[in-house]
Design goal:
By secondary structure, the protein is mainly alpha-helical. 53% of the residues lie in helices and 3% in strands. The longest helix is centred in the N-terminal third of the chain and has 25 residues.
């Protein structure tokens, strides 16, 4: 008789292969992946039964129901690999224009935010400070370098 402990290795391999297939963009590969998961569930249940690992057996039953659900939902889905209108994209690409097909890569949009030059910031910042202080009637007048005292509006 074959030792049941040997079942854990094929179960592990089938589980990993099934996970790879389910992540595929091809509908057919995803379907094979769900059936592979069901095979791995059966292998894990057999191993768990022999090892008296009842929690693992129950987990595999629950996962088998989820795999049946996944296979059923996959039947109604389009093939993501051939569907240009699919919201799924295996790689990150700009959605504004399709890439060129004449062996020229599509021009990349520059997504960097370029800050303004530091010398252009200083006068603008000084002007904003002056305007704010003038509105509050406090502080320094940075345009001519003079300092004025705040007026006391509560004084009689």
């Amino acid at each position: 008789m074959i030792d049941a402990h040997i079942l854990q290795w094929p179960a592990m391999v089938v589980t990993v292969v099934a996970a790879w297939l389910v992540a595929s963009e091809s509908k057919a590969k995803r379907q094979v992946g769900f059936w592979s998961f069901l095979l791995s569930n059966a292998l894990w249940i057999a191993w768990a039964w022999h090892s008296s690992a009842w929690a693992l057996a129950l987990l595999q039953v629950a996962l088998a129901f989820m795999n049946v659900r996944g296979a059923w939902k996959n039947k109604g889905q389009k093939n993501r690999a051939n569907d240009p209108k699919s919201s799924y994209s295996g790689s990150i690409q700009p959605t504004s224009a399709p890439p060129k097909r004449d062996d020229q890569p599509a021009p990349r949009k520059d997504r960097r935010v370029v800050p303004p030059e530091p010398q252009s910031l200083a006068p603008r910042l000084a002007q904003e400070v002056v305007q704010t202080e003038a509105a509050l009637d406090v502080g320094a007048n940075l345009e001519d370098g003079t300092i004025r005292e705040p007026t006391n509006r509560n004084a009689a």
